[in-house]
Amino acid sequence: MRFKFIGGLVTGLAAAACMNAYAAPQGGPTAFNPGIGLVLQGTYGSYASAAGNRQIPGFMLGDGAGLSPQGFALGESELDVDSNIDNLFYGFAALTFHDDHGQGSAEVELAYLETIAMPDGFRVRAGKFFSDFGYQNARHSHVWDFVDQPLAYEAMLNNQYSDPGVQVTWLAPTDTYLLFGAEAFSGDSFPAGGAAHSGNGANTLYMKVSEDVNDSSTWFAGLSYMSARSLNRPSLGTDPFDPNNSVIDAGPFFTGTSNISGADFVWKWSPHGNFYEKNFIFQAEYLHRNERGSVAASACPVGQVCGGSSYSDSANGWYAQGVYQWMPRWRFGLRYDHLGSNNTVTGAYQPAVLLGNGFAPRRYTAMLDFSNTEFSRIRLQFNRDESGAAPYNEVFLQYIVAMGAHPAHTF
Q1: Inside any domain, residue 170
Q2: Residue 73 belongs to a domain with what CATH number?
Q3: Residue 250 confidence (pLDDT)
Q4: Is residue 1 part of a domain?
Q5: Mean pLDDT across the chain
Q6: How crowded is residue 117: how many other Cβ atoms within 10 Å of its Cβ?
Q7: Torsion on CA atoms 376, 101, 240, 352, rounded to nearest 10
């Protein structure tokens, strides 16, 4: 069993939003003729120039945090290939393409195989993939309900955590959808770093449960835990209290542990399961993080003792959002983000980015989108961003189109 179909509601969600999570295996013939799909994204961003260098007082950030480029830009366009490999394995790969004002890049976003014939509800995935920590993390950018990720994901998961690793899940044989999972990763990516602990620098555990309320409503909830180890993890950004917005060059460097706990809840409603006519989705997540270790102004060679300061933090972040489709093809959404941190830095090195001074970053977001079909979407979004030392207004216009074959997505 790979999907939870709920009175047609989940089926409609998958088609209408071209959403993501566990890809359904293709039919047997695709072993020799794999499904190939292309998702194109583009954005236009307008905001104060200083807002582009993401700065969140009290938080060290990874290189994935921040806004889309100002003006016109190619977003995270994606080339997908998927197929049954044989009667035991399914394979999926996604290559992403970016362009930042002439600076193009390509990377392997996902490349994994997973089992399709294990007994007793077990499934194994191996390769590079999005962690199933939380709810939002495993969703591709082209199925997000907003242009950007919640602030909690930017600050604690570098927008979206993925890494090479292995995942094992077990779907319980119960009437209520109940899934347990565990993951082990290399730990190269933020919030880990440096592939610490002999190349097993991050591990997760999670539980997900879902049930129908009636033929119009369904809820989904989850609990997640991540333990990550870092060795000279860099932090990129700007000095949040410098009026000149000076750039901090790959510092501070963090060595230590990050433990993140999360809880998520989603409620989906459509009248008698008719998602195409009208629907409403409420989604919320809460993340809590403890970090312990040391921070230094420069990376310390492995095996040496370098100067730095002892560092500990207790941070939390949450968001709540609602998206309402009041008529076919048109949706309106609101989101609120909130962060908080309590850092202690003991030593001569006092990086300004960690001195939150009680500041509580927040952001208010509104969006309107139009989907001509399930294969195209145009979105207008406004952010009132109060996550940095100075508030900014941000406006984005985005298009998303899908061509070719694309795996179905779940709840």
Answers
A1: yes
A2: 2.40.160.10
A3: 58
A4: no
A5: 85
A6: 11
A7: 120
Which structure tokens are listed for 286?
């809460």
Counted domains in the chain:
1
When pLDDT is averaged across residues 18-35 and rounded to a whole number, the result is: 52
- Asked whether residue 248 carries a pLDDT value surpassing 50, the answer given is no
Evaluate whether residue 54 is within a structural domain: yes
Name residue 286's beta-bridge partners: 263, 318
Those residues whose C-beta lies under 8 Å from the C-beta of residue 281, and which sit 6 or more positions away, are: 145, 266, 267, 268, 269, 322, 323
Task: State residue 5's pLDDT score.
Answer: 32
Burial class (CB in 10 A: 0-12, 13-18, 19+), 351: buried
pTM: 0.87
> What pLDDT score does 411 carry?
66
Q: How far apart are CA 402 and CA 129, in angstroms?
A: 21
411 lies in some domain = no
Residue among 264, 170, 282 nearest 221 (CA): 264
Q: Is the pLDDT of residue 243 over 50?
A: no
Residue 17 — left, alpha, or beta (φ > 0 → left; ψ -120 to 50 → alpha)?
alpha
Domain hosting 88: range is: 9-404
Q: Can you tell me the distance from the alpha carbon of 1 to that of 3, in angstroms, rounded to the nearest whole number?
A: 6
Neighbours of 181 (CB within 10 A): 21
Give the pLDDT score at 32. Answer: 66
Residue 401 CA: distances (Å) to CA of 159, 259, 395: 22, 37, 20
Looking at residue 68, its pLDDT comes to 73
